[in-house]
Design a protein that fits this description.
This protein has 171 residues and is mostly helical. The chain has 6 helices and no strands. It is globular. The model has no long low-confidence stretch (mean pLDDT 90).
């Protein structure tokens, strides 16, 4: 499926084929983002205790990297299962999540974790860092606050972070 087009997928598996693995994706994203935000909040509240004051400006970057590492490492088996279910054709290898768990040794469920960390840790570090910076600029220099500027800062932070880390998505 990696080299197929949307049209080929629909022809071979129907419209439903475009959502293969999405159930696992939905199960994965909730704990991943919850862990990510919780670890980030914990980190930014505690990092400066251990850092010299002159490095506290790096708090969002360090906290974001740590949050990315912890959250990705925690949920990685679900990421691997999602990939396995998404890339198979018409349930040719696995019938569902439980079947992947049964047929795959635990150690194999962590295959690829290093490469995922190589991309996700810098992405989350940069995302939180840029969000913090953009929000500070919006509040202090432009006099903007509230949900709409925060929404814009979050979107801009994500776009900026992914611009820097996109090559890791190709590996």
């Amino acid at each position: 499926m990696a080299n197929s087009t949307i049209r080929d997928t629909i022809r071979k598996e129907g419209l439903v084929g475009l959502w293969k693995g999405n159930y696992v994706n939905c199960l994965r994203i909730f704990p991943q983002m919850a862990i990510n935000f919780a670890v980030y909040q914990f980190s930014i509240n505690n990092i400066c205790i251990y850092l010299p004051d002159k490095y506290c400006y790096m708090n969002p970057f360090i906290g974001g990297a740590f949050a990315g590492i912890v959250s990705m490492a925690t949920i990685y088996p679900l990421e691997n299962i999602r990939s396995r279910l998404s890339l198979q054709t018409k349930r040719s290898h696995y019938s569902g999540i439980y079947d992947v768990f049964k047929k795959t040794p635990t150690r194999e469920l962590y295959n690829g974790l290093n490469m995922s960390l190589l991309g996700f840790a810098p992405y989350t570090a940069l995302n939180y860092m840029f969000y913090s910076s953009f929000k500070q600029i919006a509040n202090e220099q432009l006099g903007l606050s509230g949900q709409i500027p925060n929404l814009f800062c979050g979107g801009l932070a994500g776009m900026t972070a992914v611009t820097f880390t996109y090559p890791t998505d190709l590996i």
